[in-house]
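Session log. Operator J.P. requested a structure for one protein chain; no other inputs attached. Running the standard single-chain path with C-alpha coordinate output.
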Amino acid sequence: MRAVRKAGQAKKVALLAGNGSAPGAADAPPGLRRGYAGDGSRSLGSGKERDGYLGERMDPLSVPVVDIGDEKKKISSANGWNLPNALTLSRILISPLIVVLLLKESRRRNRLAAMALGIAALTDFLDGYLARKQGKETRLGQFLDPLADKICISSVFVMLARRGRLAGWVPGVIIGREALITLFRVYAGARGGSVPASMWGKLKTNSQLLALLAVITGEQGKKREILRQAAVAAAVALTLYSGLDYIIKSRRYLAPAEGG
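Structure written below.
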Protein backbone atom coordinates (compact mmCIF):
# COMPACT_ATOMS: atom_id res chain seq x y z
CA MET A 1 0.00 0.00 0.00
CA ARG A 2 2.86 2.36 0.80
CA ALA A 3 4.36 1.72 -2.63
CA VAL A 4 1.05 2.55 -4.29
CA ARG A 5 0.71 5.81 -2.34
CA LYS A 6 4.28 6.83 -3.19
CA ALA A 7 3.64 6.09 -6.86
CA GLY A 8 0.47 8.22 -6.81
CA GLN A 9 2.25 11.10 -5.10
CA ALA A 10 5.12 10.91 -7.58
CA LYS A 11 2.60 11.04 -10.45
CA LYS A 12 0.99 14.19 -8.99
CA VAL A 13 4.36 15.88 -8.58
CA ALA A 14 5.30 15.04 -12.16
CA LEU A 15 2.03 16.46 -13.48
CA LEU A 16 2.44 19.68 -11.51
CA ALA A 17 6.02 20.12 -12.66
CA GLY A 18 5.11 19.41 -16.27
CA ASN A 19 2.26 21.76 -17.21
CA GLY A 20 0.89 23.19 -13.96
CA SER A 21 -2.33 21.14 -14.15
CA ALA A 22 -3.44 18.25 -12.03
CA PRO A 23 -6.33 15.85 -11.58
CA GLY A 24 -9.24 17.82 -10.26
CA ALA A 25 -8.01 21.11 -11.69
CA ALA A 26 -9.85 20.54 -14.98
CA ASP A 27 -13.17 20.69 -13.13
CA ALA A 28 -12.33 24.09 -11.67
CA PRO A 29 -13.40 27.32 -13.41
CA PRO A 30 -10.99 28.48 -16.13
CA GLY A 31 -9.67 31.39 -14.08
CA LEU A 32 -8.90 29.14 -11.09
CA ARG A 33 -7.31 26.04 -12.70
CA ARG A 34 -3.73 27.26 -12.44
CA GLY A 35 -2.06 26.24 -9.19
CA TYR A 36 -4.57 23.61 -8.03
CA ALA A 37 -3.33 20.38 -6.49
CA GLY A 38 -4.70 16.96 -7.33
CA ASP A 39 -7.27 16.99 -4.52
CA GLY A 40 -8.74 20.29 -5.76
CA SER A 41 -7.03 22.39 -3.07
CA ARG A 42 -5.05 25.50 -3.86
CA SER A 43 -1.28 25.08 -4.02
CA LEU A 44 0.68 28.04 -2.62
CA GLY A 45 4.15 27.07 -3.64
CA SER A 46 6.14 30.18 -4.51
CA GLY A 47 5.82 33.69 -3.14
CA LYS A 48 4.51 34.83 -6.53
CA GLU A 49 1.77 32.20 -6.38
CA ARG A 50 0.81 33.32 -2.88
CA ASP A 51 0.59 36.96 -4.00
CA GLY A 52 -1.51 35.97 -6.99
CA TYR A 53 -3.80 33.89 -4.81
CA LEU A 54 -4.41 36.75 -2.40
CA GLY A 55 -5.28 39.11 -5.25
CA GLU A 56 -7.74 36.83 -7.08
CA ARG A 57 -11.46 36.34 -6.54
CA MET A 58 -11.92 32.76 -5.42
CA ASP A 59 -15.69 32.68 -5.77
CA PRO A 60 -18.54 34.90 -7.00
CA LEU A 61 -19.40 35.95 -3.44
CA SER A 62 -15.95 37.23 -2.57
CA VAL A 63 -15.42 40.98 -2.20
CA PRO A 64 -13.31 42.54 -4.98
CA VAL A 65 -10.08 44.19 -4.00
CA VAL A 66 -10.41 47.99 -3.86
CA ASP A 67 -7.62 50.18 -5.11
CA ILE A 68 -6.52 52.34 -2.20
CA GLY A 69 -5.59 55.33 -4.38
CA ASP A 70 -8.97 55.46 -6.10
CA GLU A 71 -10.76 55.06 -2.78
CA LYS A 72 -8.87 57.99 -1.30
CA LYS A 73 -9.76 60.06 -4.34
CA LYS A 74 -13.44 59.22 -3.99
CA ILE A 75 -13.45 60.06 -0.29
CA SER A 76 -11.72 63.38 -0.94
CA SER A 77 -14.21 64.18 -3.69
CA ALA A 78 -17.12 63.22 -1.46
CA ASN A 79 -15.89 65.42 1.38
CA GLY A 80 -15.44 68.33 -1.01
CA TRP A 81 -12.07 69.50 0.36
CA ASN A 82 -9.82 69.95 -2.64
CA LEU A 83 -7.85 72.64 -4.47
CA PRO A 84 -10.69 73.90 -6.72
CA ASN A 85 -12.99 74.42 -3.73
CA ALA A 86 -10.16 76.11 -1.80
CA LEU A 87 -9.78 78.58 -4.68
CA THR A 88 -13.52 79.22 -4.60
CA LEU A 89 -13.38 79.86 -0.86
CA SER A 90 -10.48 82.28 -1.35
CA ARG A 91 -12.73 84.36 -3.61
CA ILE A 92 -15.18 84.77 -0.75
CA LEU A 93 -12.35 85.76 1.61
CA ILE A 94 -11.02 88.36 -0.86
CA SER A 95 -14.38 90.19 -0.92
CA PRO A 96 -14.00 91.91 2.50
CA LEU A 97 -10.53 93.09 1.47
CA ILE A 98 -11.94 94.75 -1.65
CA VAL A 99 -14.69 96.38 0.40
CA VAL A 100 -12.14 97.84 2.85
CA LEU A 101 -10.02 99.19 0.00
CA LEU A 102 -13.05 100.91 -1.54
CA LEU A 103 -14.09 102.64 1.69
CA LYS A 104 -12.00 105.70 0.82
CA GLU A 105 -11.32 107.44 -2.47
CA SER A 106 -7.68 107.00 -3.39
CA ARG A 107 -5.90 106.15 -6.63
CA ARG A 108 -3.61 103.71 -4.81
CA ARG A 109 -6.50 102.02 -3.03
CA ASN A 110 -8.46 101.83 -6.27
CA ARG A 111 -5.57 100.09 -8.00
CA LEU A 112 -5.18 97.62 -5.14
CA ALA A 113 -8.92 96.93 -5.20
CA ALA A 114 -8.77 96.36 -8.96
CA MET A 115 -5.85 93.95 -8.50
CA ALA A 116 -7.73 92.05 -5.81
CA LEU A 117 -10.80 91.86 -8.05
CA GLY A 118 -8.61 90.59 -10.89
CA ILE A 119 -7.23 87.85 -8.61
CA ALA A 120 -10.78 86.91 -7.69
CA ALA A 121 -11.67 86.67 -11.38
CA LEU A 122 -8.62 84.45 -11.94
CA THR A 123 -9.69 82.07 -9.17
CA ASP A 124 -13.14 81.92 -10.79
CA PHE A 125 -11.50 80.57 -13.95
CA LEU A 126 -9.03 78.26 -12.22
CA ASP A 127 -11.44 76.51 -9.85
CA GLY A 128 -13.73 75.41 -12.67
CA TYR A 129 -10.83 74.44 -14.95
CA LEU A 130 -9.07 72.35 -12.30
CA ALA A 131 -12.29 70.72 -11.12
CA ARG A 132 -13.07 69.50 -14.65
CA LYS A 133 -9.50 68.51 -15.51
CA GLN A 134 -8.84 66.63 -12.26
CA GLY A 135 -12.33 65.16 -11.95
CA LYS A 136 -12.91 66.91 -8.62
CA GLU A 137 -16.33 68.39 -9.24
CA THR A 138 -18.34 68.17 -6.02
CA ARG A 139 -21.72 69.28 -4.73
CA LEU A 140 -19.94 71.66 -2.37
CA GLY A 141 -18.14 73.25 -5.30
CA GLN A 142 -21.34 73.57 -7.31
CA PHE A 143 -22.88 75.41 -4.36
CA LEU A 144 -19.90 77.59 -3.42
CA ASP A 145 -18.86 78.74 -6.91
CA PRO A 146 -21.95 80.84 -7.81
CA LEU A 147 -22.26 81.97 -4.18
CA ALA A 148 -18.69 83.28 -4.22
CA ASP A 149 -19.35 85.17 -7.45
CA LYS A 150 -22.49 86.77 -6.01
CA ILE A 151 -20.81 87.83 -2.76
CA CYS A 152 -17.76 89.29 -4.46
CA ILE A 153 -19.51 91.11 -7.31
CA SER A 154 -22.52 92.36 -5.36
CA SER A 155 -20.38 93.79 -2.55
CA VAL A 156 -18.23 95.74 -5.02
CA PHE A 157 -21.30 97.14 -6.82
CA VAL A 158 -22.71 98.31 -3.49
CA MET A 159 -19.45 100.03 -2.49
CA LEU A 160 -19.16 101.83 -5.82
CA ALA A 161 -22.76 103.03 -5.55
CA ARG A 162 -22.04 104.20 -1.98
CA ARG A 163 -19.15 106.30 -3.28
CA GLY A 164 -21.32 107.80 -6.01
CA ARG A 165 -19.48 106.07 -8.85
CA LEU A 166 -22.64 104.20 -9.88
CA ALA A 167 -26.35 104.94 -9.80
CA GLY A 168 -28.09 103.38 -6.81
CA TRP A 169 -30.46 101.30 -8.96
CA VAL A 170 -27.59 99.38 -10.60
CA PRO A 171 -26.65 97.24 -7.56
CA GLY A 172 -30.39 96.91 -6.87
CA VAL A 173 -30.92 95.23 -10.25
CA ILE A 174 -27.82 93.06 -9.85
CA ILE A 175 -28.64 91.87 -6.33
CA GLY A 176 -32.35 91.41 -7.10
CA ARG A 177 -31.59 89.16 -10.06
CA GLU A 178 -29.04 87.13 -8.11
CA ALA A 179 -31.44 86.63 -5.20
CA LEU A 180 -34.22 85.50 -7.56
CA ILE A 181 -32.07 82.93 -9.37
CA THR A 182 -30.58 81.69 -6.09
CA LEU A 183 -34.07 81.03 -4.72
CA PHE A 184 -34.96 79.27 -7.95
CA ARG A 185 -31.88 77.04 -7.63
CA VAL A 186 -32.85 76.16 -4.07
CA TYR A 187 -36.39 75.36 -5.19
CA ALA A 188 -35.17 73.19 -8.07
CA GLY A 189 -32.75 71.36 -5.78
CA ALA A 190 -35.53 70.65 -3.28
CA ARG A 191 -37.55 69.06 -6.09
CA GLY A 192 -34.64 66.91 -7.25
CA GLY A 193 -33.64 69.09 -10.20
CA SER A 194 -30.57 71.25 -10.82
CA VAL A 195 -29.86 74.60 -12.47
CA PRO A 196 -26.37 74.59 -14.00
CA ALA A 197 -24.69 77.80 -15.08
CA SER A 198 -25.77 78.73 -18.60
CA MET A 199 -23.74 80.43 -21.34
CA TRP A 200 -25.63 83.67 -20.71
CA GLY A 201 -24.95 83.39 -17.00
CA LYS A 202 -21.20 83.11 -17.63
CA LEU A 203 -21.29 86.07 -20.03
CA LYS A 204 -23.18 88.03 -17.39
CA THR A 205 -20.49 87.37 -14.77
CA ASN A 206 -17.67 88.35 -17.14
CA SER A 207 -19.46 91.55 -18.19
CA GLN A 208 -20.01 92.51 -14.55
CA LEU A 209 -16.33 92.02 -13.76
CA LEU A 210 -15.29 94.15 -16.74
CA ALA A 211 -17.75 96.87 -15.76
CA LEU A 212 -16.45 96.92 -12.18
CA LEU A 213 -12.84 97.13 -13.32
CA ALA A 214 -13.72 99.95 -15.71
CA VAL A 215 -15.43 101.94 -12.96
CA ILE A 216 -12.77 101.32 -10.30
CA THR A 217 -9.80 102.20 -12.50
CA GLY A 218 -11.58 104.80 -14.63
CA GLU A 219 -9.76 108.08 -15.16
CA GLN A 220 -11.39 111.41 -15.83
CA GLY A 221 -12.37 112.21 -19.39
CA LYS A 222 -15.43 112.27 -21.61
CA LYS A 223 -14.42 109.26 -23.73
CA ARG A 224 -13.54 107.17 -20.68
CA GLU A 225 -16.84 108.05 -19.08
CA ILE A 226 -18.70 106.89 -22.18
CA LEU A 227 -16.82 103.57 -22.09
CA ARG A 228 -17.64 103.11 -18.41
CA GLN A 229 -21.31 103.78 -18.99
CA ALA A 230 -21.36 101.37 -21.95
CA ALA A 231 -19.71 98.65 -19.85
CA VAL A 232 -22.20 99.11 -17.02
CA ALA A 233 -25.15 99.14 -19.45
CA ALA A 234 -23.95 95.92 -21.07
CA ALA A 235 -23.56 94.28 -17.66
CA VAL A 236 -27.07 95.29 -16.59
CA ALA A 237 -28.55 94.10 -19.91
CA LEU A 238 -26.86 90.70 -19.68
CA THR A 239 -27.86 90.43 -16.03
CA LEU A 240 -31.53 90.88 -16.89
CA TYR A 241 -31.44 88.70 -19.99
CA SER A 242 -29.62 85.81 -18.29
CA GLY A 243 -32.18 85.87 -15.47
CA LEU A 244 -35.01 85.84 -18.01
CA ASP A 245 -33.33 82.93 -19.80
CA TYR A 246 -33.37 80.87 -16.59
CA ILE A 247 -37.06 81.64 -16.07
CA ILE A 248 -37.98 80.71 -19.65
CA LYS A 249 -36.17 77.38 -19.31
CA SER A 250 -37.47 76.71 -15.79
CA ARG A 251 -39.62 73.76 -16.91
CA ARG A 252 -36.57 72.11 -18.43
CA TYR A 253 -34.67 72.34 -15.14
CA LEU A 254 -37.66 70.99 -13.20
CA ALA A 255 -38.59 68.31 -15.77
CA PRO A 256 -36.59 65.47 -14.14
CA ALA A 257 -38.26 66.15 -10.80
CA GLU A 258 -41.74 66.38 -12.29
CA GLY A 259 -41.16 63.20 -14.30
CA GLY A 260 -40.17 61.34 -11.11
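Operator note: Residues 107-133 form the longest helix (27 residues).
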